[in-house]
Amino acid sequence: MAQIPTGLVSHSKKVCNFYKRVIRHLESTIVHLDEFRYQAVLMRAKFDGNKNVRDLRVAKDMLKQGEAELFSQLHYSYKKFPESPGGVAYQREHPAPDWLLDYWDENEKAAYPKYFATREKRKKEYEEFYAAQYGKPSSSAGH
Question: Do 85 and 2 form a contact (C-beta atoms < 8 A)?
Fold first, then answer.
């Protein structure tokens, strides 16, 4: 399952993410490994040359300009890893829903007694939590 970023992202994390995207762009556009490594080293030198900028406004502006330049030059077939969003294998295998375990035969459950004992305990705790949080459903709710 994909991780959804929450909270604030620092400027340094944004720059690191941008650097990764630039390197992936270079991988997508440059076929020969020697040329790619040369361009990657030059790109790293550009980033290292700007790492001591103390004024955050200037640094943010430089990042915004760099992202705009990357967007304008982005390769039409940008390299994506298979399991990443947009990749060919992204969410290919869906995890089985938890309720399927309720339909296991008793003989199948007997192979994992500790797991199913803990699971039943957790289900009961959740039902009690739900009832305390939202109350018991009324019998005329469906009518």
Answer: yes
Determine the length of the chain.
Answer: 143
Of the candidates 32, 29, 37, the one whose C-alpha atom is nearest the C-alpha of residue 76 is 29
Cα angle vertex 59, ends 62, 24, to 5°? 55
Query: For residue 140, what pLDDT is reported?
Result: 63
Residues 18, 22, 28, 34: is their CA dihedral positive or negative?
negative
Whether the model pTM is above 0.90: no
DSSP string, 8-40: ---HHHHHHHHHHHHHHHHHHH--SHHHHHHHH
Q: By the 8 A CB rule, do 56 and 11 touch?
A: yes
Q: For the chain of 143 residues, list the mean pLDDT of each consecutive stretch of 10.
A: 73 93 91 93 93 90 94 84 86 89 94 95 94 82 55
